[in-house]
Design goal:
By secondary structure, the protein is mostly helical. 77% of the residues lie in helices and 0% in strands.
Length: 107
């Protein structure tokens, strides 16, 4: 949730012409990550959903880098945003490791 809160504030500072394109893509990606995390908690077979979550996390990272390369955010905002996004990535990785490797859950 911290990642979503910070990035939503960051997205408000995007140029007006990007609020409905790249900013929307980033917002949708963050919301999908949250939705997939909730879905995983409720599912019995989680392998494909973990894969989708991991892929969407990388998509979000690339969108944020694209915002930086397009000069919509500065290096400080990039650093903070990537720290929060990387923290989510570490949690996803740990979750995948404990759920799939330790328990042997397969689909």
């Amino acid at each position: 949730r911290d990642m979503i809160k910070y990035n939503k504030i960051m997205l408000r500072q995007f140029p007006k012409e990007e609020k409905y394109s790249l900013a929307l893509d980033i917002r949708n990606s963050m919301n999908l990550i949250l939705r997939l995390a909730i879905t995983i908690n409720k599912k019995l077979y989680k392998k494909t959903t973990f894969s989708e979550l991991n892929i969407e996390h990388e998509v979000l990272r690339q969108f944020i880098y694209l915002a930086y390369e397009s000069r919509y955010i500065d290096s400080k905002k990039l650093k903070v945003s990537m720290e929060k996004t990387d923290e989510v990535g570490r949690l996803i990785g740990y979750w995948i490791k404990t759920e799939l490797l330790d328990k042997g859950n397969t689909e």
